[in-house]
């Protein structure tokens, strides 16, 4: 009984089923309610799951790529060593071509050496992880410039055979790979920016 002698107000009616379902779904979406329990599995599903015959999800394209490129640790070391040795050989030959002033051959052999060196990192780290590391935002520009310079060096060396253009493309390769490696070292890119700025100021002041 209330203070004024009247009957207490009736409690509010429960929300409709649809409204309650929407509210629960919203609370689960914002993390204020636990997810609904999964439907109970039958005894047959439980037994099949225990023996590995239960339902399996469809493999994604990345799953198939990882499975196709998965090697043992020993084979990865073999691949890394072979690619590294081939890259060193091509770098050595490219230096010889500079000595005899064959710049087109130098550009081709130097670029192939870089490609083999890149392939060695794929064997050592794994292709998926290496690609993710290469295309992180901090390395994206350097990666695109580096890969573009590799392609341009081969194109210029094979089709135009211009010594000047080959040297320019190789210099771009070197600058891009230095900037790429610097992204793994703390404050290295900042230091490179300051060094390049100081060099530019000294050149313009002459």
Automatic annotation (TrEMBL):
Transmembrane portions of the chain: 77-102, 108-126, 138-158, 164-185
One GO BP: protein transport
Lineage: superkingdom: Eukaryota
Record keyword Signal present: no
Stretches for region Disordered: 1-21
Subcellular location: Membrane
Record has Transport as a keyword: yes
Compositionally biased intervals (Pro residues): 7-16
Pfam families for the chain: Got1
UniProtKB keywords: Membrane, Protein transport, Transmembrane, Transmembrane helix, Transport
GO cellular component entries: cytoplasm; endomembrane system; membrane
Membrane topology annotation: Multi-pass membrane protein
Similarity-based family: Belongs to the SFT2 family.
Record function comment: May be involved in fusion of retrograde transport vesicles derived from an endocytic compartment with the Golgi complex.
Protein's name according to its UniProt entry: Vesicle transport protein
């Amino acid at each position: 009984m209330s203070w004024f002698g009247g009957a207490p107000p009736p409690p509010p009616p429960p929300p409709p089923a649809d409204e309650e379902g929407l509210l629960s779904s919203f609370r689960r979406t914002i993390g204020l309610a636990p997810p609904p329990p999964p439907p109970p599995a039958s005894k047959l599903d439980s037994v099949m799951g225990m023996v590995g015959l239960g339902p399996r999800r469809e493999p994604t394209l990345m799953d198939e790529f990882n499975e196709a490129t998965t090697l043992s640790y020993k084979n990865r070391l073999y691949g890394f060593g072979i690619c590294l040795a081939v890259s060193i050989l091509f770098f050595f030959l490219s230096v010889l071509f500079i000595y005899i002033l064959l710049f087109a051959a130098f550009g081709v052999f130097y670029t192939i050496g870089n490609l083999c060196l890149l392939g060695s990192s794929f064997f050592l780290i794994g292709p998926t992880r290496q690609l993710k590391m290469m295309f992180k935002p901090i390395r994206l520009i350097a990666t695109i410039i580096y890969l573009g310079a590799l392609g341009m060096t081969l194109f210029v060396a094979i089709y135009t055979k211009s010594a000047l253009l080959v040297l320019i493309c190789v210099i771009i390769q070197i600058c891009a790979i230095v900037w790429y490696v610097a992204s793994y070292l703390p404050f290295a890119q900042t230091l490179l920016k300051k060094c390049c700025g100081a060099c530019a100021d000294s050149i313009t002041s002459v």
